[in-house]
Structures are given as structure tokens and as C-alpha cells.
Amino acid sequence: MKKVSVIVPVYNVEAYLPRCLDSLVNQTLKDIEIIVVNDGSPDNSQSIIDAYQKQYPEMIHAYIKENGGLSDARNYGIKKASGEYLAFIDSDDYVEPQTFERMYQKAREADFDVVACHLKYIYEDSDEIKYVSSHLREDITEKEKLKEIIISIYPSACNKIYKRSIFHDDCLFKKGILFEDVEFTHRLISNIKSIGKVDEYLINYTQRSGTITKTPNKKVFDYIDNMNGIIAYYQEKGIFEEYQRVLEYSYVRYLYATFIKQSALLNKSDYNEAVRLAQKNVKEKFPHYRFHAYFYRNGLKGIYLILFNKMIAAMVYQMNH
After folding, report:
1. In the chain, which residue ranges form alpha helices assigned H by DSSP?
2. Quick one: which of 12, 7, 16 has its CA closest to 74?
3. What sign has the CA pseudo-torsion 155, 157, 161, 164?
4. Cα gap 246→292, rounded to integer Å
5. Which of 26, 121, 153, 309 is the most buried (most CB within 10 A)?
6. Nearest Cα to Cα of residue 7 among 37, 46, 40, 39
7. DSSP 3-state assignment of 97?
8. CA distance 45 to 201
9. With contact defined as beta carbons under 8 Å apart, do 103 and 22 qualify?
10. What span, in angstroms and rounded, lies between the C-alpha atoms of 228 and 278?
């Protein structure tokens, strides 16, 4: 059994793929496997994959499948993985040489289910680097503290390694959606008993122009379905009341902050519909959220969420146009 299986979905990334694979084959931890999943990419990515597999036949395992999206490619890779821990690296990103050695050492330190590190945003159109925290203040093994991180943990799958035994039918990546990492992380928390942190910036997360967070795209409406699906998941498992406080805050925050901010890139009509749906869903799911103590502990963001209305929504739109 390998110590870490690194799953790399590939789609239209020929300009970035060599940098990603170079960073993986040169890891200081040698006992890893790199599972490269070509998700029906129409560009020259496969020839790049073939060249690396030929050069590193014991390390790289390559697969080709019909296009099904990022979540589908990751789930495919999970089924092929044999490692004790799994990692997910997007093929336009790259990692520091010591990434998986540091993270695996931490995982074995206390048999953590998940280990998270910090990451850097690398902007392709400038020399700017933004240092982004995992938002973990400490290693966590207590259930009550694990619940709390739902509202704070950086939700990317790419800055973590996961014990392979975590993954089962109701803990995979949801297919056919955007913002799949947010949806996955919210469900994941109820399936783990511990999470460790590595205080190093090990993941280089490429910020490309034209991504969903920077351009108008009505797929931002996936946020509503995702958050409603998360609530339904906790209800179906019979643990909704146990997690209700943190789910309430997270639900309102994603709909009134993240969703609204990204919807502000749309035209005025679509934005107004986004505001209407956000308010409608919050009212239906958590009509009394303003009485929730969490919203009064989070400074200006909490005040924004408490006061959110159509006038504030109009101001957000104006700030983006």
C-alpha cells in the first residue's frame, strides 16, 4: 500500500500540466502514486500524460474516461487509488516538494482522518501572491470543536489529505455541480473524528482569468442547490439538530455573502433573481437566524448578514459595476 495517492483530474490544461506533474514526481516522499484521470480532454494533455507515464512508470497511473466533470473524475480516481491517504490536486496547480512528506508525517502523528495545510494564490496575470490560511487554529479531536470548523475551515479539497477509509457512497464528490468542494467539505465533517494542521504554505493554487469566480456565469445558482442538499443530507442522517447552529450560520453566510457577491457579476435581472431566491430560501430554512449568537460574534461580516436586505443587495451590485 502506498502512503499517499494523489488524484489529478485533467481537462484542457496542457499549458499547466507539466508544471503540476513535475511538482508531484519530485516529492520528497517517494512512496506515493499519482493517479492522472483524463476527463475526455480535447487538447494535447494526453500526450503530456503519456510522456510522464513513460518516464515514471512506477509512480504515474494514467486513465482516460468520457467527460463527466471535476467531481466525476475525482470519484473515478478514488476507485483506482490504493494509498493509505488520498490527495486531490487540480492539474493547473502545483505543490511544494515537501508537501506530502509533511502532511503524511502529521497524519501518522495521531492517526488523523484529515490533515490540512495553508496555500498560496498564484496569479497568472501578475506577480502577486496571496497567502491563505486553512483557518485551523489547532489539531482537533473533539467532536464539538469539529462541528465548529464547518463555519471557518477553508473548503478546498486541494489543501488536504484524507484517510482513504473515509470515502464511501455518501461521502464522495457530488457530480454535475460547481463549488463541489464546499458541498463535499460540509458533508465530510460529519464523517470524521479528527483533523490535524500543518502550518506551512504548501499548495500553489493558480488563479486563472476567466474562472467562475471572476466572470458572469449563471452556474453560481448551484450554491442554492448545494446548500439545500447539505441541509437535506444532515436531516436524512438524523443529525441535523446536533449540527443546526453551525449549519444555520454557514447556510446564511454562503447565500447572503458568497452567492450574492458572485451573482453581482451577472446582469441586473439575473442578480435580482439571485437576491430573491437567497432571501426566499433563508426565510424558509432559517427564518429566525437573526436570534442566533454566531452572527453576533463575527464582526462586520456578522452585522452584514444580520442586516442583509434589498437595499444592501443593491449596494453590493453597484460596487461590482
Report:
1. 17-25, 45-55, 70-80, 99-109, 143-148, 180-188, 222-236, 240-253, 260-263, 268-285, 299-307, 310-319
2. 7
3. positive
4. 10
5. 153
6. 37
7. coil
8. 28
9. no
10. 11
For 156, what's the count of Cα atoms within 13 Å in the CB-facing half-sphere? Answer: 22
Largest CA distance in the chain: 60
Kindly provide the b/e burial profile for residues 284-313, where b requires at least 16 CB atoms within 10 angstroms of the residue's own CB: ebbeebeebebbeebeeebebbbebeeeeb
Q: Quick one: CA torsion of 117, 33, 111, 195, rounded to 10 degrees?
A: 30
Helix (H, G, I), strand (E, B) or coil at 71: helix
User: How far is 18 from 182, CA to CA, in rounded Å?
Assistant: 27
8 Å CB contact between 236 and 274: no
Give buried/exposed letters for 157-172 (b at 16+ CB in 10 A, else e).
Answer: bbbbbbbbeebeeebb
Cα separation, 40 vs 43, in Å, equals: 9
In a 13 Å sphere around the CA of 13, the CA atoms on its Cβ side amount to 25
CA dist 100 and 84 (Å) reads 12
Dump pLDDT digits (tens) for 156-189.
999 999 999 999 888 899 998 888 999 999 999 9
Q: What pTM value is reported for the model? A: 0.93
- pLDDT over threshold 90, residue 122: yes
pLDDT one-digit tens code per residue, 50-95 = 999 999 999 999 999 999 999 999 999 999 999 999 999 999 999 9
The pLDDT of residue 297 is above 80: yes
C-alpha grid cell for residue 310?
434589498
Q: From CA 54, how far away is CA 61, in angstroms rounded?
A: 10
Cell numbers for 154, please give them: 477553508
